[in-house]
Amino acid sequence: MTSTPEKPQAPVTEGQAAPAPVAAEPEVVPTLSFRTVARSLFKHITRDRIISFLLGCISISALFLVWYLGTKYRFEFYIRFKNVPTPAEVFNQLTQVGLSNKYLVNIAISVKRILTGFFIAIAIAVPLGLLIGKYERVRDLFMPCVEILRPIPAIAWVPMSIMLWPNNEAAIVFITFIGAFFPILLNTIHGVHSLDGVLVRAGRCLGANEAQLFWNVILPGSLPHIFTGLAVGMGVAWVSLIAAEMISGQFGVGYFTWEAYSLVDYPAIMLGMITIGVLGLACSGVIRMVGVLLMPWLAYAPGGRR
Questions:
Q1: What does the pLDDT average to over 88-95?
Q2: N or C: more exposed end of the chain, with fewer CB within 10 A?
Q3: Which residue ranges does the record assign to the ABC transmembrane type-1 domain (predicted)?
Q4: What is the per-residue pLDDT across 100-121, written as a single tens digit (0 to 9) for each?
Q5: Helix, coil or strand: residue 80
């Protein structure tokens, strides 16, 4: 590699003032704009991803096709479609509840609860998982409690949470937090344990302190496992939230579905179930999108999609 020759300066004679130094051009700092984010997203839209999207659409369409045929011809072998509402009946139910704010308010309340519990779980589980995975004494201190509490299902916490928290809203958010906390924590710990020790030793040789080591080596190296935990935790959080809303909630998609069951309103039950599935799919899609933005190197790793 050849270096660019510097421009020779004129010699300074005696009695002549030295030339003023040329001011360096200011460094242009890239800013995060909507165009930058959109370009980063569209850069990862490749032929393989389009095919994957189309196959996903075919899979969902096949599921609805089975539902349509089963309800149209009222199949009655081991699975009975006799009382299952048709897609048209569910769509009519959607148009009816869409005219009122009740359905949208229930969705907004459930989304608020899931995001609150989920982000609290991230704020606690990720730092704690990094510390447990890195330091043996921290692992000895916290892991016995984790192993005792982890097998308890989130639904079993409902009676206790009602006694612990001053209102149902805080209790439901706590149940959602419990559902998301343990998958995120355990996957973060596994991510630290799976990190190549050569990277940590290289960071120390380059003079990185503990904070720099965590921020520049351990956290980026653990991100794939952390996002796996986020995806799993989001699914468990939705299951926990719906169960809590059915038992002790007065609003939310879970309460909407349970109320429809109490009123023997089958189309509303199916509408509630589809709503839960769509919301869960949207949340998982957002997590994957954020993962693509934060881990662009995975697209070029072995086995990754270009």
A1: 86
A2: N
A3: 107-287
A4: 788 888 899 999 999 999 999 9
A5: strand
Specify the number of domains making up the chain: 2
249 phi, psi to nearest 5 deg:
-85, 160
Task: Please give the DSSP secondary-structure letter assigned to residue 298.
Answer: G
Q: Residue 228 has what pLDDT?
A: 92
In whole angstroms, what is the distance from residue 175 CA to residue 179 CA? 6
d(CA 173, CA 285): 22
DSSP 295: -
**208 or 173, higher pLDDT:** 173
For residue 228, what is the domain's CATH number? 1.10.3720.10
Residue 125 tokens read as: 């589980």
Contact criterion met (CB below 8 Å) for 268 and 223: no
| Domain extent at residue 68 | 46-84
Instruction: Check: CB of residue 139 under 8 Å from CB of residue 132.
Output: yes
Same domain for 234 and 248, yes or no, is yes
Query: What is the residue type of 218?
Result: I
Instruction: List alpha helices for the chain, DSSP H.
Output: 34-43, 47-73, 87-98, 102-134, 136-149, 158-164, 168-193, 197-205, 210-213, 219-248, 253-262, 266-294
Residue reference for tokens 């990754």: 304
Task: Kindly report the backbone phi and psi dihedral angles of residue 17, in degrees, each rounded to the nearest multiple of 5, phi listed first.
Answer: -70, 145
Contact 223, 287 (CB under 8 A): no
- List the end-to-end C-alpha distance of the chain, in Å, as a whole number: 30
Q: Nearest-CA neighbor of 239 among 277, 186, 184?
A: 277
- Cα of 219 vs its chain's centroid, Å: 16
Dihedral sign, CA of 157, 162, 164, 166? positive
Looking at the structure, tell me whether residues 170 and 62 fall in a common domain. no
How far is it, in rounded angstroms, from Cα 85 to Cα 183? Answer: 35
Question: Do 244 and 173 fall within a single domain?
Answer: yes
Tokens 């720099």 locate to 212
Residues 6+ apart with CB under 8 A from 265: 93
